[in-house]
Write a structure and sequence with these properties.
This protein has about 110 residues and is an alpha+beta fold. The chain contains 2 helices and 3 strands; from the N terminus they run βββαα. The chain has a domain at about 5-40. The chain is about 20% helix and about 15% strand. The chain has a 3-stranded antiparallel β-sheet with strand order 2-1-3, with no helix packed on it.
């Protein structure tokens, strides 16, 4: 359970309370004056990274693996016939018929 910091509205003292995340701040009772006027404060916290884990490391590794797979895949021969470039995005979005880059005569 997390530790929350509070300030009492009646005696103005600060205190900490270990509570469930579902507990409402309005239901917290001051341990000094027993008033139910506590306000939850925003508190700072610290964390420690142990080992070689760094934030974002797994994402960078995933992108490196993806780029490696893409480069290996681009070196493979096409499965069906000649590989062509896709049409430009503005031609597809405009609704115009696709432009054929095929310069081979029909039947070859």
């Amino acid at each position: 359970m997390p530790i929350y910091e509070y300030r009492c509205g009646q005696c103005a003292k600060q205190f900490e309370a270990t509570q469930s995340v579902h507990t409402r701040p309005e239901d917290t009772i001051c341990p000094f004056c027993q008033a139910q006027q506590a306000t939850r404060l925003l508190s700072a916290f610290a964390s420690k990274i142990v080992g070689t884990h760094k934030p974002g490391f797994s994402e960078m590794k995933a992108y490196d693996m993806l780029n490696e797979r893409k480069s290996k895949f681009s070196k493979l021969p096409p499965v069906f016939g000649k590989r062509t470039d896709p049409p430009p995005m503005d031609a597809v979005a405009s609704g115009s018929p696709p432009i054929s880059n095929n310069t081979d005569p029909p039947g070859s």
